[in-house]
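Progress report, Aim 2. The chain analyzed during this reporting quarter is listed below.
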Amino acid sequence: MSIIYMYHRRYRMRRVLAAIVLLFMYTFIYMSPLYADGFSYKSAVAQPSVKFFAGSQDIPVMPGLIELEGRSFSYDKPEGEITQIVAQMDGVNSEQVLFYYDAILPQFGWGKVSKVFDGANFFREDEYLDISFDVDGAQSLVKIMVRPSR
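Predicted structure tokens for the chain:
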């Protein structure tokens, strides 16, 4: 065997191995629990008609969340407005909620600050947005609070 033949054979094997690794990664990512029921980044971002929570003009309602307007509130204080939105999760889980808002909130100027044990925190100009989860009886709830950073 010539050296050139051996080089091309080794190069070809590397390409085949790289293709197998990429195929495995692609399969692993799209078989994860977030995609198991058809929920994907595309479905999180490409919404034909986005509805917004009544308490906020720029926080979209994720499909599968039902706003509980009687439990939401908003009030002004000298530093800015504080708004809490409470929604019931209907057929979605906390991972899917965080995935959706991680994907869509940057389109409204929010940057992710951190992911905490039971939610996530976002920042925009002089506001914080906190997402947390709670259980009230048989209801699984998501709470979204927008508050001034000062």
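Residues 48-148 form a domain with the TATA-Binding Protein fold (CATH 3.30.310). The chain is about 30% helix and 35% strand. These observations will guide the mutagenesis work planned for the next reporting period.
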